[in-house]
Amino acid sequence: MREYALLASEVTYDRTGQVIRIDLNPNEQVCMFATTFPKQLSSLVLRKEDDWFYYHPGVHIFRLIRVAIEYLNNSPHGGASTITQQLGKTVLHTTSERTFTNKLYELGVACILELYHSKDDILVMYLNTVPLGGNIQGFPAAARAYFGKQVAELNENEILQLISALSNPNSARPHTDTNFAQALELANTLGTHMPLQTANATKNDSGVWLELSDLLEGCTSCTATIDVDLTERIRSILADHVERGLKYGSTHGAVAVVDVHTGEILALVGSPAPDTETEGMRINMALETRPIGSTIKPFLYLLGFTKGLRPYTRVEDREYKYEIETGFPLYPKNYDGKYRGMVTLEESLANSLNVPTVEVQRFITLPDTYAYLENVLGFSPRQSWDSYAYGIALGGLELDLVTLTHSFSALANHGVLRRLVSAHTKDGNPYYFTPPHSVLREDTVIANPDEVALINAILTDRTAGVEQFGITGSLHLSRGGYGVKTGTSRDYHDSWTVGYTGDFAVGVWIGNVKNTPMNMVSGSAGAGMVWHDVMELMFTTPYDKKTPIDLSSVVPVSSNRGHSWGLASDNVEVARSLLESNTLILFPHNFDTFLFTEGMRVPLTARDDVVWSIDGKEHMGDAWYPTHEGTYSISASSATQDEQIEVRVVSEPTRIPK
Predict the structure, then answer these.
(1) Distances from the Cα of 146 to the Cα of 159, 165, 167, 181, angstroms
(2) Any idea which architecture 2-190 has in CATH?
(3) Which pLDDT does position 351 carry in this prediction?
(4) How far is the first Cα of the chain from the last one, in angstroms, to the nearest whole number?
(5) Topology match between the domains 2-190 and 585-650
(6) 22-26, 586-590, 615-619, 642-646: which has the minimum mean pLDDT?
(7) What residues contact residue 88 under an 8 Å CB cut-off, 6+ apart?
(8) CB within 8 A of 39, min separation 6: which ones?
């Protein structure tokens, strides 16, 4: 019947069928429907409430006559309501006041129920809706609320406690002394056994309420894609590492796990301890905006590969000068402050070198960088793209963990980026989730599978990044077949690690809610430790199907390391030299500005042996000592090339005009 169906609360399940959220029904009650009940529960309820249930027509005539006589004589009388009558009262919300008129109304409702429903159906409806204390209706909801169990899992002790609450559901609810005393009395009356009282067995609600409030906003009666048990195991891993990281100034963290084939969010941890009062622990940091450091680099190199660059392309790791929107020049530095001379792009990406990455971004151009990140990957940053410029290559781009982890899933899926799915509706349709910094509204292909394979060849080779990351450590797992990239934001405010197999992508962020710096916690040292343990956990789950990352289209090409990777159709010599520069004067740079001081020294550096000239006059030595302010012309001549630049020496700092 319609009134009965309306009593059911909207229930949200995780992907394994576990209940993770129950909404209040229209009567502001929690009510869950089951179709079958333990035989012992049904039997004891009938013995206590209505032992003639299967024999009367909805009304117990002899009880009714007795109660009527006692009522007319103003004598104390017990209840005569059958289970059918009680069901009618619950379903139709009739008043609890015991008047003759109300009893007649209940009699009529009971007769109608008996006319249109079988006895078994009436019993099931009663067990699903009978009040059992507070805002709990029915044995299924009560089993979960009081004992953290499915109704089919209740033991005899728990069944007796729930049945004892039927007469006075608010004052004698389970886990109270009154309830236990009545349960003992009921056990004696019914001739059954009541075990010794046990501690409150109610399970605490999972901490996923923090993440679900975002993932399922607007979705009712959904089946969430997350696995609650997996999520809580990951939360435990994160909590352990955050506790150990307190001495290094890191107090918070977040983890995201995405199925690369379907786009489903398998686990999301936005806080290590959402049920505590500790400052910031009730903020879902998986959706907060933070600079993502070097984790953006694979996508810049991927865009470069679509424009003809290759892992074996050579680039000089040295000081470069870039004019940017601020009017001040940019001189990018590597993480360790060192320059390495000529390197390949494979070496650069594997060791997360900044300077060659900026050269890659210069090659692909700033407008094309912005267009690719927004229109293909679906990134929507906090600030305008122009405000980031080459800062993107240097780790300044700001995103949230879910958006970032999601983008890496495409690398494991032949370049196909599926829309994020956080749940499925009653009809089985996907419920899409759009994180704060994503504008992706459909599945997309981020690059040709062959070009994606070139990125994977680099990120899955743990020997390529030995210089920066060593041959052991958090990025080395118990088995191969995975790719990984770390990132550290400026001044160690954020530690990132994102990696993937052919089945799932895992992203980790470590930092502080207040955005305070950590004590030199890099991506591999902070987030990498958590990522390692989460990946090892994922290897033990059904989500690890051991799908290989496809590298079948790449071929070996000779390089500084002995070999690198390319495609069979490559013009190797052309691709190898695309980033090579013929600049003769390496320092100073054209239009450099120096602040004048007495005795100042300006180094003079060239690619080849040259003869230097200052304002047309030959200059000896590898340094120049300006004696006054002004604009100077510096020339260098080698056996094959001449080059001239202009520099300024000023008395006060000044903005260079565009």
Answers:
(1) 11, 12, 17, 17
(2) Orthogonal Bundle (1.10)
(3) 93
(4) 76
(5) no
(6) 22-26
(7) 94, 106, 109, 110, 112, 113
(8) none
- Determine the pLDDT at residue 657: 45
Q: How many CA atoms lie within 13 A of 381 on its CB side?
A: 22
Do the beta carbons of residue 145 and residue 32 sit within 8 Å?
Answer: no
Per domain, the residue ranges of the chain are: 2-190, 229-552, 585-650
β-strands 290-291, 314-317 pairing: unpaired
Relative to beta strand 483-488, strand 494-500 is antiparallel
- CATH second-level architecture of 229-552? 3-Layer(aba) Sandwich (3.40)
Dihedral sign from CA coordinates of 359, 355, 451, 405? negative
Q: The tokens of 134 are what? A: 């507070």
- 585-650 to CATH, choices 3.40.960.10, 2.60.40.10, 2.102.10.10, 3.40.640.10: 2.60.40.10
For Cα atoms 53, 128, 15, give the angle at the middle one, nearest 5 degrees.
145
Alpha helical stretches, state H, 151-218: 156-164, 177-190, 209-215
Instruction: Starting at the earlier edge strand, list the strands of the sheet with 19-22.
Output: 19-22, 11-13, 223-224, 421-424, 430-432
Using only C-alpha atoms, the chain has a radius of gyration, in whole angstroms, of 35
DSSP assigned state of 489? -
Is beta strand 642-650 parallel, antiparallel or unpaired with respect to 593-595? parallel
Distance CA 341, CA 339 (A): 6
Please list, in sequence order, all residues whose beta carbon lies within 8 angstroms of the beta carbon of residue 442, skipping any fewer than 6 positions away: 419
Quickly count: other Cβ atoms within 10 Å of residue 515's Cβ: 13
pTM reported for the whole predicted model: 0.81
Of 11-25, 67-81, 483-497, 548-562, where does mean pLDDT reach its minimum?
67-81
Q: What's residue 69's pLDDT?
A: 63
CA angle (140 as vertex; 135, 142 as ends), nearest 5: 40
Distance CA 524, CA 471 (A): 13
